[in-house]
Write a structure and sequence with these properties.
0% strand, Glycerol uptake facilitator protein, mainly alpha, 11 helices, single chain
Length: 235
């Protein structure tokens, strides 16, 4: 239960900091600031709860770890349930805070940092562009996570966070960057409307990308895990 609660906490922090920056500071810090908010939130959680749960804070990451053969199906389900719960709780808290704005807060107009595509969102990319971006970006993100954590480097958390930052710099104008079904779920269920109607893509595409990344890491030449084990055995 401790690791499940750690995932709830970590996902809460990611959504609270990342989406909170979009809501309350996006106009001031711009896309670069938003990108760093998400990336640095992951860095913080990697070093805070990494030793407890691995700091997945993302169902796509958990799916990648599971498909790579490094996690039981029971833990996979537990992680995903608590990750979604953490994201929903963070979105609810953000909505409550935003509605305390004295001059008023129009949640439909101003949003909650939700993901999306099409006319009126970002630079207006279509569904196929959004789908391809989310699958590829999640694959790359989860691949980096699996590779850096396999080497047990103390820099893994920083590398992972910076990777997420770069992905946000690239894709904020395409989909707002999900690469995380829970991150999309929280704001969408609080906002409803178009965000909720488009949620399916941000549940599906990152999950596919994560699964593919995990399956690809079963190949020794991709992740180098067997080489690492062989070196340890020799020592």
């Amino acid at each position: 239960m401790k690791k499940y609660l750690a995932e709830l906490f970590g996902t809460f922090v990611l959504v609270f900091v990342g989406c909170g920056t979009v809501i309350f500071a996006g106009a001031t810090v711009g896309h670069l600031g938003i990108a760093f908010a998400f990336g640095l939130a992951v860095v913080a959680m990697a070093y805070t709860i990494g030793s407890i749960s691995g700091a997945h804070v993302n169902p796509a990451v958990s799916l990648g770890v599971w498909s790579a053969g490094k996690m039981s199906f029971k833990d996979l389900l537990g992680y995903i349930i608590f990750q979604f719960a953490g994201a929903a709780l963070a979105a609810a808290v953000l909505l409550y805070i935003a509605q305390g704005k004295i001059s008023g807060f129009d949640v439909v107009k101003e949003g909650l940092g939700q993901n999306g595509w099409g006319e009126g969102y970002g630079m207006g990319y279509n569904m196929v562009s959004a789908l391809l971006f989310e699958i590829i970006a999640t694959f790359l993100f989860v691949k980096v996570i699996l590779r850096t954590t396999a080497s047990e480097s103390v820099m893994a958390g920083l590398v992972i966070g910076l990777t997420l930052t770069v992905i946000h710099i690239l894709g904020l104008q395409i989909t707002g960057v999900s690469v995380n079904p829970a991150r999309s779920f929280g704001p969408a269920i609080m906002l409803g409307g178009t965000a909720l109607n488009q949620l399916w893509l941000f549940l599906l595409a990152p999950s596919v990308g994560g699964l593919l990344a995990g399956l690809s890491c079963r190949c020794c030449c991709c992740c180098g895990e067997c080489k690492t084990k062989a070196k340890k055995a020799k020592k």
